[in-house]
Amino acid sequence: MYKSFDLRRHVEIDEGYDEYRHLNPLHEVSKSLMLLGYPNLLAHQTLRVASDGLDRLIKGADAVLTREPWQMPYVLDNAPADTPVIFSSHNVETERFADIEQPLFANSVQRKIDQLERRSVEETDAIVCTSQTDAAVYRERYDPGGPVLVAPNGTYVDSLRKHRPESQRAGHIRSLYGITTEETVCLFMGSNYKPNVEAARELVGIAREMNSGEERAHFIIMGSVGNALNEKSLPSNVTTTGYVEDRFEAHFDAADIALNPMISGGGTNIKLIDYFARSLPVVSTPFGARGFDAEHGEVMLVSELAEFPRVITSLGSDHDRRQALGDRARRLAKREYTWEASSRALINFIETEFDLT
């Protein structure tokens, strides 16, 4: 917002969907903790000093849906008693921040995270999770104050499409990175976020192992996650792209296999749904596949990291299996993992549960 000099306080996103923005620098200062790997623990306190009209919007709302626990104390303290407050959780934050890299105040930070998450689960009128796994954790760890809805992460219907490895744009990407036609192209994408960085480093080790084998594979690491890797130490069969915008879709078509080597983090991996939507066959760790109701071999292959080289080699040489996996994955995404479907379920849940029709 500040970088683009878009200082509008009220933006109409779509019909019936308006965005009200805060422009107080205090909110940006409070986010500085995030640079050290901490969550935005000061958000609710900053709002008490500079609400930018949020208190007025809360008091005039029929229901309040609050994403993540960081603002929740302010919302709960300002919402009228008869206004339902719904906690929208994208991760189990106590798990996500269980291993904070910065040792300074780590224990007190983790206690604070637990306090905020507990209050968000126990004192709200309903909870929305992205997976049954997260919902089960909340039920086991806390005492939910209301019903729990699972509304999965998703992709847009417009993103659902066939894989086009023979397209001109796919060939351009392969040529751009010096990838031969004999190499199996493996794609991993992600932002510069600790669990993604850990996964990318594991992938570099796998690439190094496969670089000396007879069956050749080339690994494309797309997104800002590549910025965290030491470019000089990467094996020759690894390409990092940094942030990609103009040729984003072309990278999916250039890939033969999509990889999800996640070993840490919270919530569900949206990247999996992005792979599914574009009909890519996926190889994932069991951890990366958590929260998805997908059997091994049906819409993706689930394997421990140690087995990735073998699985990649086998799948890379089997075109028909790759195509079958990708087609089934796309159909699953269309059936269960679109933002449109999740949004309809969420709206219906809120209207029905709180008699807002």
Automatic annotation (TrEMBL):
<keyword id="KW-0808">Transferase</keyword>
<feature type="domain" description="Glycosyltransferase subfamily 4-like N-terminal">
    <location>
        <begin position="53"/>
        <end position="155"/>
    </location>
</feature>
<dbReference type="GO" id="GO:0016757">
    <property type="term" value="F:glycosyltransferase activity"/>
</dbReference>
<dbReference type="Pfam" id="PF13439">
    <property type="entry name" value="Glyco_transf_4"/>
</dbReference>
<protein>
    <submittedName>
        <fullName>Glycosyltransferase Family 4</fullName>
    </submittedName>
</protein>
<dbReference type="Pfam" id="PF13692">
    <property type="entry name" value="Glyco_trans_1_4"/>
</dbReference>
<dbReference type="InterPro" id="IPR028098">
    <property type="entry name" value="Glyco_trans_4-like_N"/>
</dbReference>
